[in-house]
Amino acid sequence: MSRAPQSPDGRYAAKLLFQTRFEDDKPGGFRTVEERILLIEADTADAAYQAALKRGKEGSSTFTNDAGAQVFIEFVGVTDLMNLGPEVETDEVWYEIRRMKDPMQRKSDLVPKKADLSAVRLERRHSADSALAPHRRSPKR
Predict the structure, then answer these.
(1) What is the pLDDT of residues 69-103, one digit of tens each?
(2) Residue 7 to residues 39, 52, 54, Cα–Cα distance (Å)
(3) Predicted model pTM
């Protein structure tokens, strides 16, 4: 029996899909989804896939929101698994190579402004929230 080929660096990236569902949602509608990209160390693609499935199942959760409704974060599945071989830098976790019409000419449509990037928006919002919150004094020790 031949063994499956191994990843030279033992690194894989798995793209996982989750959906958010509320207790009174009806099937057939649009849902908010989340895609997570995980770095997985494994000897083979099959081992990486099994690890991705496990992480996805562990990522499912249920909680009650502020309005008292149950919210379900549900693992849908692994949508892609990429072998991060020697062609990838050590800090790269995902890449896609595809054809695109005139990317440089359409740069302003394709590349968001720095202020519109998710991490920058989140920090800006957190800063604004902190500035509006009443300042609390630290308890004396």
Answers:
(1) 999 999 999 999 999 988 888 888 888 888 999 99
(2) 13, 16, 20
(3) 0.73
